[in-house]
């Protein structure tokens, strides 16, 4: 991670060397969400700052959401590398100059999925007027498609070069990968079956009545979560719920993963604990988590810092032989894109809508195991991160392919990408 790929940034680096620009003002950003939502947002905000010739202050990270992680940018990312790697492209500073320190910035939320023209026509005049602008929400504020190629490549440059984790996080992540590699290949299962996901999505398939009540209470306890009444089964049949550990077990077996496959579980605390993982562990006993790879002393500084723990999972996920997310949230998408960038490493994009249909048919004994397994394999033959272009749906940015899941503008032919990667130490 965090390495410049020789030859791939030719036009961007020419722009990098074009000299410092005259700043139109200062950009403060308050990122919202978990690690990967914030990561993508930082890439977008750097790109906006460059386009508007703004000086950007080191981003503020979310401390108010469900996770309540007090980590600052410097606790997760290498600040000096971030600043230095973008020097000459975007001026980034650690704090506002003294003369602006007491100025109340204009605070606003940019419109989601906006083009560069929106920022030029609507935001730049405000920047010139107020000089200091704060974006209080940063998730998905830049369009997936239709941006100038240089801006798309800058988004990639920030994501795959400028955003490097701190040395301590990188060191532990590399150690975990080395331990996993010492016994051969391994897969990462991003099992997003955590309490916050289930509560806010309303996905309760397989939960007891008591668990469903607990999850509902949690959803109602957070006033900022607008969707309260949710039809869980309808969402599941539409493919909008993460697979349960039990459903995931069936899918792994159907795809042909052998019993001794080494599986790293990338997630926080699984809702229901060891009881809910029992079936998965019975069928695939060679399961490991970060707590099994690192000592208590090594993990202690990261405890109660869910974003830093997620950074460790991110490093292992990018490096794995196969990455399988049980949902299509921000981590699943951003990791998939990073794995494409590092040589189209295999990511199995589960078709949850069709999978739950097949699972229900199998559990109702309407499909034999052989029929079920064959159908699952056929379903995913074209869903393993093969080189492709993003699906564009005009007017429906939420429904089209996410830029960071497949930044095809930055990838190039698979063969050339792999040839370039021979000279890269990940």
Write up this protein.
The chain has two domains: 155 residues, Rossmann fold (3-Layer(aba) Sandwich); 254 residues, no CATH class. 45% of the residues lie in helices and 7% in strands. The N terminus and C terminus are likely disordered. Helix 11 runs parallel beside helix 12 and helix 17 packs antiparallel against helix 18. The strands form two sheets. A five-stranded parallel beta sheet has the order 3-2-1-5-4. Strands 8-7-6-9-10 form a five-stranded parallel beta sheet. 39% of the residues are buried. The protein is an alpha/beta fold. The protein is built from 19 helices and ten strands. It is globular, with a radius of gyration of 22 Å.
Keywords:
single chain, five-stranded parallel beta sheet, globular, Rossmann fold, disordered N terminus, 45% helix, disordered C terminus, 426 residues, alpha/beta, 19 helices
Q: In terms of topology, how is this protein built?
A:
Blueprint: H1 10-16, E1 26-29, H2 35-51, E2 55-57, H3 73-76, H4 79-85, E3 92-93, E4 106-108, H5 116-130, E5 132-135, H6 149-162, H7 167-181, E6 187-190, H8 195-201, H9 209-221, H10 232-237, H11 245-255, E7 263-265, H12 273-283, E8 287-288, H13 290-293, H14 296-299, H15 306-319, E9 322-325, H16 330-341, E10 346-347, H17 352-363, H18 369-379, H19 414-421
Parallel strand pairs: 1-2, 1-5, 2-3, 4-5, 6-7, 6-9, 7-8, 9-10
Helix pairs in contact: 2-6, 7-15, 8-9, 11-12, 11-18, 15-16, 17-18
């Amino acid at each position: 991670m965090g390495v410049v790929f020789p030859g791939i940034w030719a036009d961007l680096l020419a722009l990098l060397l074009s000299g410092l620009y005259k700043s139109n003002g200062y950009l403060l950003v308050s990122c919202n969400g978990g690690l990967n939502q914030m990561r993508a947002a930082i890439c977008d905000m750097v790109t906006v700052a460059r386009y508007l010739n703004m000086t950007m202050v080191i981003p503020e990270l979310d401390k108010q959401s469900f996770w309540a992680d007090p980590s600052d940018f410097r606790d997760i990312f290498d600040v000096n590398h971030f600043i230095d790697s973008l020097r000459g492209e975007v001026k980034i500073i650690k704090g506002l100059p003294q003369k602006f320190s007491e100025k109340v910035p204009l605070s606003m939320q940019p419109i989601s999925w906006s083009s560069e023209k929106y920022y030029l026509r609507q935001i730049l005049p405000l920047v010139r007027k107020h000089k200091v602008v704060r974006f209080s929400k940063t998730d998905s504020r830049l369009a997936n498609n239709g941006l100038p190629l240089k801006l798309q490549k800058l988004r990639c440059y920030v994501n795959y070069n400028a955003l490097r984790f701190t040395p301590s996080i990188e060191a532990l992540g590399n150690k975990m990968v080395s331990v996993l590699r010492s016994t051969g290949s391994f897969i990462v299962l991003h099992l997003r079956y955590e309490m916050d996901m289930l509560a806010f999505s309303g996905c309760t398939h397989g939960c007891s009545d008591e668990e469903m009540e607990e999850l509902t209470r949690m959803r109602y306890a957070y006033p900022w979560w607008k969707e309260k009444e949710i039809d869980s089964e309808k969402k599941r049949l539409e493919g909008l719920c993460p697979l349960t550990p039990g459903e995931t077990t069936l899918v792994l077996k159907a795809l042909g993963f052998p019993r001794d496959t080494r599986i790293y579980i990338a997630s926080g605390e699984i809702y229901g604990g060891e009881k809910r993982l029992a079936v998965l562990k019975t069928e695939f006993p060679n399961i490991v988590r970060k707590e099994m790879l690192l000592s208590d002393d090594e993990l202690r500084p990261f405890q109660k810092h869910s974003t830093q723990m997620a950074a460790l999972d991110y490093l292992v996920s990018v490096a794995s032989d196969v990455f399988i997310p049980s949902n299509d949230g921000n981590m699943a998408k951003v990791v998939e894109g990073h794995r494409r960038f590092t040589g189209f490493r295999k990511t199995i994009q589960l078709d949850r809508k069709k999978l739950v249909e097949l699972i229900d048919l199998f559990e109702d004994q309407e499909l034999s195991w052989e029929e079920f397994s064959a159908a699952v394999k056929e379903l995913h033959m074209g869903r393993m991160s093969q080189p492709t272009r993003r699906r564009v749906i005009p007017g429906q940015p939420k429904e089209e392919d996410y830029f960071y899941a497949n930044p095809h503008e930055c990838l190039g032919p698979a063969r050339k990408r792999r040839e370039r990667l021979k000279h890269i130490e990940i």
